[in-house]
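Chapter summary example.
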Amino acid sequence: MDGPGKYRILLAEDDDAMRTYLSRALENANYEVVAVDRGTAAVPLLESEEFDLLLSDIVMPEMDGIELAQRCNEVSPTTKVMFITGFAAVTLKASREQPRAKVLSKPFHLRDLVLEVDRVFEGDAQASL
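The structure predicted for these 129 residues follows.
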């Protein structure tokens, strides 16, 4: 049973270890996480379920994170987007194409990830006051 204020995060990350690591960190911070290993697996979930945040790696097989974010904007416009990547050039492209999305560059501390995710939702809490 979900308590109030439990945000749902859809995590798309093709690296198994990273996906487990990020999921665990976010769950420990009291977020509900649904994790998939590719963008193409994330799209049907965005279409059929409610998520507060899409946290996506940018470089993935089949569909990259930027394409996934564009689909997310179409099918679930209220879902916020945050990217994670290890490639500086990709960060620039993401910032250009998804200017409202936060990009977190690898390597990062889990604490920083959780802080950034908290920050995304802090804006919501302020707006609803």
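To summarize the output: Residues 110-127 form the longest helix (18 residues).
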